Amino acid sequence: MILAVLIGLWITGLTVVTQFGGWLIDQFLLLTGLDRLVWLWPVATVGLVALAGTPTLLLALLPRSRTVRTVGQIWLAATLAFGALSLPRALPPVQHEAYLATLAGVAGLAMLLAHRLVGRRVVPSDPGDGSNRSRAARPTPVTLLGLAGGLALLLPWVWVGALGGLLETLLAALAATAVGGLAAALLPAAFWSRFASGTPPRPGRLVLVGGLVAGVALLLLGAGVGQSGAQLPLLLTLPPAGFALAALAAAARRTATGGAAAAAWLVGLSVFGPLAWTDPEEVGLVLAGTRETSFWVAVAAGAGFAVAAVLAVAYGVTLARPQGARPGRAVAGVAAATLLVTTGVVAVGLGQPGLHGERLFVVLREQADLSGVPATTGRAGRDDRATEVYQRLVETAERTQADLRRELRRFRLDHTPYYLVNAIEVDGGPLVRTWLADRPEVDRVLVSQRVRPLPVPAPVTQGDAPAPRGADWNVRLIGADRVWSELGVTGAGVTVGSSDSGVDGGHPALAAGFRGGDDSWFDPWNATSTPSDRGGHGTHTLGSAVGRDGVGVAPGAAWTGCVNLDRNLGNPALYLDCLQFMLAPFPPGGDPLTDGRPQRAPDILTNSWGCPELEGCDPGALRPATAALAAAGILVVFAAGNTGPRCRSIEDSPAFHPDVLTVGAVDRQRRVTDFSSRGPAPGGGAKPDLVAPGADVLSAMPGGGYGVLSGTSMATPQVAGVAALMWSANPALIGDLPQTRRILTATASPVPVSGESCGDEAHVVGAGLVDAYAAVRAAQG
Predict the structure, then answer these.
(1) Active-site residue among 500, 523, 577, 771?
(2) What CA–CA distances, in Å, run from 522 to 517, 538, 579, 624?
């Protein structure tokens, strides 16, 4: 028995370490921009099965005690089941429906095998195995108590989580049902009888010892269910549920039925929570902000652990007494009905009702032909170019999307057409995706990631740094303060557009610069009518471009804003919502394809975001958008990314596109920061184009305060601000993107690169550190 305890501790520690370790490796790869290791989970699975399966096999064969051998047999079966359930994790998290379908199939097969093998292997059949067919049509009290326990464990997920799409939810239910059946097959009544044998019967021993053994088995099952971290809560909630199952098994021995069904309900509903009410792509460090998805998953897991502990104690005290009465059907039925009603009330009231699944981003084959658009410059020339580009884009979209839109309306599939990229976002799952991919006008279909709602909005991120006293260090480093004082240029007459988490329009450093009108703010996320920001990232970046009081490079420039990154996770459609608004702003409630006003387009766009594969983009998803903006004479500036110092780490669209100005980061000592992404870009292109201060940059934060942040996100708006100073000093340069790029790169100051070059120093620092004073002087000349 001591050997069994040691092996149980070994299995527990090994399972927890491999699951948390594997998840952390996944998160590290994601945050650093490295490719996902497809072999990671299969290798970890094989390793755990080998390291845990070998001692359990010995435990199942060698001891003289039949009870100890039974323990080994159950743990061995659970280890093998874990191995089978874990293999579908080789599928990428974005293919969640495919994962759930595969999990359901694997769990169903494992359940059938367990029924055939485990029941025979442990001991002969027992009256408590639920085989009393005369009562099968009528739920027993034990079954009802198992249902009640499962609903209690599901309740925290209903409160804090949100369902995905319809097919996703149905597949999650199917997978959870199969896993629940597998748990019942692995823990048959014959297994429980080993711990209750004796005269008189010892149900207390069954609960304590049998609960421990079952807890280890359920730990292994939970470790195999869910991907990308969604399995971690089950490591906390399922083991204590083993004691509740033991108490139900004790009651089932007296009622002679219902134990297997109770186990299936309790485990199945426990598994259904994280499978259906969370998106595995959101359970990670990418959304690690205050009270984000990971926080609420931790809350649900903690609540689930508490519920499981209460169930174990309550069921153990009331059901596992030597002379205990049989549980009453009325009491059990009332408990199950009460929890069922409570779950429904919480789902509709405190929860986030509705389906919030992913959508599909359908890219059409034909993209607008923008060749021959006159390269006119200056204010009037730029406006004419933008109008010509807008008209060509809309004409192409209306003509080529007509048949597809008609079919989507016929099938009542909700959809949103786009023109900047000739594409349509469609509500649909794998079947719709297959149908769309086969249509002749469709080039490819991508998954458009949608974050699920949170139970409580994250608090507004506010700064805690003191207000600046004059131009801050980064503004002085690039010489912007000299442009104001010596050249008298502040950016007046130029408009900078920001697509980000939003903007605090009432901030003292930004309020006076808002362009105003009914077409200077758009929020496709929350439909706010005035500039606002909860995350702070957008306020900070725009402040570095046009903020007053010493934080912004071009404090005299005007600005417009759009929300495309409300929770640090977007998708190609949301990014296009804002980029289209920047090309042709429209009033609230307007149709981008008919109500756009290209004459009101901002001159320069600052973009401190990227669209990786996780969010649904492939390398070419937004390529037509940046090409169209460039054709319209709008200067587009993008952050290189924060996955350095690895070479070839500029890999998220649109940062590597040739028609955008890509910006890396340096610190106070003019040294390239470790986090600044390096080139070369995919295809061998030279990126970044420039670097700017990006370490410990002070700027505006929501609520009127200030904060210090680091990243290429902070460097990017400063280059946009320098371009605004140039165009303000010489309005004839407006829309002249080649000449503006030449001046910026020709006047940049050298940045030392020591010990790394990525094949060429330009792949680390581009042309060098942007020099506002030299660039504006050159623009004037």
Answers:
(1) 500
(2) 12, 13, 11, 22
Q: Do 762 and 706 lie in a common domain?
A: yes
Tell me the C-alpha distance between 3 and 713, whole Å: 56
Confirm whether 504 is a catalytic residue: no
What six digits make up the tokens of 572? Answer: 């190609």
In the structure, how many helices (H) and strands (E) does the chain have?
24, 13
Q: Do 118 and 256 form a contact (C-beta atoms < 8 A)?
A: no
Q: Which residues of the chain have pLDDT under 70?
A: 118-137, 196-203, 254-258, 288-289, 321-326
Q: What pLDDT, on the 0 to 100 scale, is given for residue 322?
A: 60
The pLDDT value given to residue 119? 55
Are 616 and 510 in the same domain?
yes
Residue 713 appears among annotated catalytic residues: yes
**How many residues does this entry show for the chain?**
781
Determine the pLDDT at residue 135. 46
For residue 127, give every residue at least 6 positions away whose Cβ sits within 8 Å of its Cβ, in sequence order, or none.
189, 253, 256
Name the DSSP class of 158. H
Q: Which tokens go with 524?
A: 């496709």
3-state class (DSSP) for residue 374: coil
pLDDT of residue 201: 57
Domain boundary among 348, 377, 407: 348
Say whether 686 sits in a helix, a strand or coil: coil
Given a contact cutoff of 8 angstroms between Cβ atoms, the answer to whether 66 and 17 are in contact is no
- Alpha helix segments (H runs only) across 530-587: 537-546, 572-583
Which entry of 713, 736, 763, 771 is annotated as an active-site residue? 713
The catalytic position among 96, 415, 537, 540 is: 537
pLDDT of 755: 74
Q: Which of the listed residues 448, 463, 485 is the one where a domain comes to its end?
A: 448
Tokens representing 704 are 């009127």
Which residue type occupies 263? A
Q: Is 667 a catalytic residue?
A: no
- Please give the Cα distance from 312 to 211 (Å, whole number): 9
Token digits of residue 356 = 């919030």
Q: Is 496 helix (H, G, I), strand (E, B) or coil?
A: strand
Whether 415 and 320 map to the same domain: the answer is no
Question: Residue 603 and residue 632: Cα distance in Å, rounded?
Answer: 10
Phi then psi for residue 570, to 5 deg, are -125, -160
* Residue 150: partners with Cβ closer than 8 Å, 6 or more residues away: 265, 266, 267, 268, 269, 270
Strands (E), 261-402: 359-364
Start-to-end Cα distance in the chain: 89
